Amino acid sequence: MSITLTESQEKAFYIISNFFKTDNVILLTGSAGTGKTTLTRYISDHFSEKGLELCAIAPTHKAKHVIETILNKGKFKTIKAFTVASILGKMKEHSYIGTKHYSDPSAKKFNAFTLFILDEVSMVSDQDLKYIINYVNKSNKKLLIIGDSNQIPCPSSKYSDEGEYIRKANSFIFDSEIPNVNLTEIVRQKADSPIIKLACFVRDNLEEEITFSHESGCKHFDYEYKVSHDNIYETFKNLKNLKSTKIICYTNQAVREHNTEVRRILGFSDEKFNKKEILMGYANIGFPELIIENGRDYEIEDVKYVNNKTILEYSGLSGHTVKLRSDRKVVSVFFIDPNKNYEILSELVERADKVNSKHSTSKDYAKYCELKNQILFIEDLYNYEDNIYSETEFKELYPLLFTKIYDIFDSDQKKILNNKLTEKINTDFPNLIENRLDDNKVIGDSEMFSDKFKIIDKDMYYAYALTAHKSQGSTYDNVFSDENDFKKIQNKFNYKLNKMEIRTREKNQLRYVDYTRTKDKLYLFEG
After folding, report:
1. What's the pLDDT band for 216 if we cut at 50, 70, 90?
2. In terms of domains, do 94 and 176 share one?
3. What order do you get walking across the sheet with 465-467 strand by strand?
4. 124-166 pLDDT per residue, tens
5. Mapped to the 3 state alphabet, what secondary structure does 51-68 carry?
6. pTM for the full model?
7. Which of the 8 DSSP states describes residue 448?
8. Does one domain contain both 163 and 109?
9. Torsion angle (degrees, nearest 10) of CA 104, 107, 113, 119
10. Beta partners for 412?
């Protein structure tokens, strides 16, 4: 193998390779820049050469693509990679349009492999991770788990009760009894890299409120990369590789605002789609072969506005036919014009409302998908009291509807919680809670009341800005960090558990993910 390991990586490899001679599951950890990726490739090559059938697993499509690319670089016989949901055979099941509810896991796909490399474990749910570990142990196979406890946990992670307050818990794996090999030596970039120093500073102060206007924060960072809010878009425009440049923030609202401003300064704002624009997949489209993949970037090669598109029994449809190129292939998709096409869009809304109605069936959902999967949208849409809203509009008008169901409902005791949040919802939206609980749909882990009013999940969106959650597992040449948006993460009272939720660590874990996405330059901006 052509990879040269550092002394600490060689020691870790020796421990892991010898461990697998007698045992099954081991954890490889390390913060940003410690060489986990290089060591993982070395381990993969080593066991592939020994004839083991191995595969890679990651929590998201983007993270899967990254680890797949790393492990297969220069290979003729490639290593397969799966998302956690895919290898577990989990399919999106009938629920509300906006609710992500999946089928129970299955071990069928596991049978073809002997060694599994599970990357970005912090984002894997405890339930799925325990299933994978139990399968590996029972079948006497091998599992290498790779992670960084400084990164953000799975969105559905539970809270840890710490006496007077609570906070989001990290994956159980980091505190488990599973053997752990921890890399500490910085190898990915120069030891004096301001980006690595900043990441290490955040890592070492996860529990502290961090600002970059005082000496303790600024001393680790080069002022050259601090830009004012007024200059970020001009700076963005002047960078060489815009395809690998991102603004990373916390909220979807900030993503929308930054994408709008970047498109304006790049001269793209007059048209909805333009040649050389970059779009990102927000859903998986196509089965069994994906046409659009969630988390992947696509460049627009060509775009035409047409008035003669035919879909099923609907003809003369208006919209944009867009030719998209990814690093793999060129595909053509159709974005329908939401300001026209009344007949087909009315039918789509009617089918969505049927899915979202009480006691709807899987057949209703299949009928909705039959039509929806033919046309693409670049924004989430909601239908409330016969008015259609974008997500931004709907959230501004009805923020209380974006409350999670489990914030007011105790699933163990099957009862509605008596707290101020419940009272507020009952006052503003009478019968909303009871109607949801009377429905036969399984409550999703992250389900919100707004889910039952959602009629469209966007398929793609402009790719110049994205949230830190969506960026995890990716790397870019240049990253802009929206510090103002991260400051919105504040402590809040948790009505369900009747305690203050401390969010300092969560905020810093998001920053840590943000800062460690870049391979070259990191720009911080405030104001």
Report:
1. very low
2. yes
3. 226-228, 518-526, 476-482, 245-249, 465-467
4. 999 999 999 999 999 999 999 999 999 999 988 889 999 999 9
5. CCCEEEEECCHHHHHHHH
6. 0.92
7. B
8. yes
9. 30
10. none
